[in-house]
Design brief:
Length: 428
């Protein structure tokens, strides 16, 4: 959502407003989200967002588009803080009516409905995204044609993707924009940076080509492409999908501080199904969008329905129909070995070539080294671990013996997040 912001100051301001206090009369119906936000004047500002565009309208005097109120409303909606309503508020309905083809002088075929208008808006967005991704492909070709070294001389390597990232926001492909912004830090970032940058460029090129053939792709892969580009799936739409009911052990909790809004990623695994699930929540304005999820801690277990977002392999989910609260869980069954992790990651990448993080439950012994530490399994296979102070805690708990850990694997290094001492989970 913040990728839609016209500038950083708007994103920061929206983050501060993305909390219940200044809002009233919020609601969502179909593709329409609306709400009243208290401002400095006597009357609250009327903020409306048409998600199919997206398109925005706000009664505030800001010249920025979208304004901070529309962005904050989007953040609230994404966090599940906007209730569903049977009908739009009057001011939201009036704005929507003004945007329909008949209001702008466009012809409408006899018998057409509002669904036809939604379809046209969705088609218009798809065309904008396609146009933006076509420009991205040309930009990627230019980077290779000129040479990767040129990206270092561009503002010292920082910001060389800013212009094309902004174009992706204009093209309504915020997922691609976020990836591009992250690549600004790669040039000159240490040994092997050209290979890392070229791999990232190749994945973006593959994503652009996949979007061109979106209608031809299998449903699961098409959902992955749409998600990576930046199309959103509403909370109610996810909750309407079939549920997986199980006792879910919270494997690990990781706080995310890379963006403008703090986030929290929670990894779980089903006791009976053995399936992984990932819950994600953000703290707009210092308030968690989903406090119940944010309070989960490693080592606890909850009985709940998990509804997975569309895509493959199923990973991100929403929890629903929980019991009274999480209780203390047991240590997970003996973790897998390195070969099993690499094989599982390869299978996942075959389903989602843009996957960058995969959960792991491993048994092994942490071994310090001069350049990097490794986790060595029973067969002697080893994986390098990300350098951090928490590795000393991991070593202290293990005492030089094998332990069970939960971690994230990014294809290069393992990031341990939890280690078990008996049945006690120790966050790292």
């Amino acid at each position: 959502m913040l990728a839609l912001a016209p500038d950083d100051s708007s994103a920061r301001a929206a983050t501060g407003l993305a909390r219940p206090a200044p809002w009233s009369g919020t609601g969502a119906c179909g593709d329409l989200v609306w709400g009243l936000c208290a401002g400095s004047g006597k009357n609250p500002y009327q903020a409306i967002v048409d998600l199919s565009g997206p398109a925005y309208r706000c009664s505030c005097p800001s010249r920025k588009f979208p304004c901070k109120h529309a962005l904050a409303l989007l953040l609230l909606w994404a966090g599940g803080a906007v209730p569903d309503a049977p009908d739009p508020a009057d001011y939201a309905r009036a704005w929507l009516e003004s945007r329909r083809p008949e209001a702008s002088g466009e012809s409408t075929a006899p018998g057409s409905t509002g669904n036809d208008g939604a379809t046209r808006r969705a088609d218009a967005r798809a065309q904008r995204v396609a146009g933006g991704l076509a420009e991205l492909r040309e930009w990627l070709k230019d980077q290779v044609r000129v040479g990767l070294a040129a990206s270092v001389s561009a503002a010292g390597g920082a910001g060389h993707t800013d212009a094309i990232a902004a174009r992706m926001v204009d093209a309504q492909a915020p997922g691609v924009a976020g990836v591009l912004r992250g690549l600004s830090e790669v040039p000159g970032s240490g040994d092997g940076w050209p290979a890392r940058l070229l791999r990232a460029y190749a994945r973006l090129h593959l994503l652009a080509r996949a979007h061109e053939r979106l209608a031809e792709l299998p449903a699961g892969l098409a959902a992955v492409v749409r998600s990576r580009v930046g199309y959103t799936t509403g909370r109610q739409e996810v909750l309407a999908l079939p549920a997986v009911t199980d006792h879910w052990l919270v494997l690990a909790v990781r706080d995310l501080m890379e963006g403008n809004v703090p986030g929290r990623r929670i990894w779980l695994r089903g006791r009976d199904t053995g399936r992984f699930a990932m819950l994600l929540t953000f703290a707009g304005g210092g308030v968690w969008q989903d406090p119940e999820t944010a309070r989960l801690r490693a080592g606890t277990e909850l009985f709940a329905d998990m509804h997975y977002y569309p895509g493959q392999p199923p990973l991100r989910a929403l929890a629903d129909q929980r019991d009274a609260g999480p209780g203390r869980g047991k240590r997970p069954d003996a973790g897998g070995d390195v070969d099993a992790l690499l094989a599982g990651t390869a299978d996942a990448l075959a389903l989602d070539p843009w996957l960058t993080t995969w959960p792991a439950v491993l048994s092994g012994t942490p071994v310090p080294g001069e350049q990097s530490w490794h986790l060595v399994d029973e067969a002697g296979s080893a994986l390098p671990m990300s350098n951090s102070d928490s590795l000393w805690t991991l070593l202290a708990v293990s005492g030089g013996h094998p332990v069970t850990i939960a971690a994230e694997w990014n294809g290069r290094t393992l990031l341990p997040l939890t280690v078990w001492h008996g049945d006690q989970a120790v966050p790292l």
